[in-house]
Amino acid sequence: MVTASDVPANRPHPAMILLAMQEQGITDAQQVLKVGDSIIDIEEGRNAGCRYSIGITTGAHTYEQLASARPDFIINDLIEVLLIVESQN
Fold first, then answer.
1. Helical spans, DSSP H, in the chain
2. CA angle at residue 53 from 19 to 85, to 5 degrees?
3. What pTM was estimated for this model as a whole?
């Protein structure tokens, strides 16, 4: 688990994602999906170069607010991530 206190820069800087990748031995951000409930989460995923930056409506921001950040997808439930991965392969 990586939190904001583990890195020198806060979101939307990609430091948390990059540290999590390093800890897991992932060198290609295209292998990473970022799911978040706020605009800043979507921006963080994009800044890290993640394959997909996905907004989820079960948290801080509404569908409309998430859409303003232009995520790759907006979902209502985490199970939908599996459908995205399956449909893109």
1. 15-24, 39-48, 63-67, 80-88
2. 100
3. 0.91
